[in-house]
Amino acid sequence: YSWVRSCWIYRLEIFGHKAGTILSGIRGGLISSTATTVSYAKLAKSNVSSSGASATIIVIAWAIVYIRLGFEIFVTSPGFHIVYFPLALLFFVSIFSAYWLRSKIN
């Protein structure tokens, strides 16, 4: 866990504290969106003031899932093009929702 902590501190030095919500959502979507959803839902339940940021992180993590799913489909079934438009649409709806949630908490 020490290398994870080092990477997280390095992220704060480069991007600052404002990018924490976005980068947490991206990281959660790349690693495990379900674990991200569970952990940030628990955080929001115990700390109501962080519920807006937690919701934004969860939505961003699920948006990343659509990109990851599209990549996996591309690798395993490159001829299955019909699925890319719905995945892109879901991604952009999720990103718009995350932007809307982020604007509500700021």
SSE inventory with pairings:
Layout: H1 2-15, H2 20-31, H3 33-46, H4 51-76, H5 84-105
Structure description:
With 106 residues, the protein is an all-alpha fold. It is built from 5 helices and no strands. It has helices at 2-15, 20-31, 33-46, 51-76, 84-105. Helix 4 (51-76) packs antiparallel against helix 5. It is elongated and about 45 Å long. The termini are far apart. The mean pLDDT is 82.
| Strand coverage percent | under 5%
Distance between the termini: 31 Å
* Low-confidence region ranges: none
How would you spell out the order of helices and strands? HHHHH
User: Mind summarizing the main beta sheet?
Assistant: none
* CA-based shape: elongated
Number of helices: 5
Q: Indicate the radius of gyration in whole angstroms.
A: 15 Å
What structural category arises from helix and sheet content?
A: mainly alpha
Output mean pLDDT.
82
* Count of β-strands: 0
How much helical structure, as a percent, in the residues?
over 70%
Quick rundown:
The protein is built from five helices and no strands. It has helices at 2-15, 20-31, 33-46, 51-76, 84-105.
List the defining traits of the structure above.
106 residues, mainly alpha, 5 helices
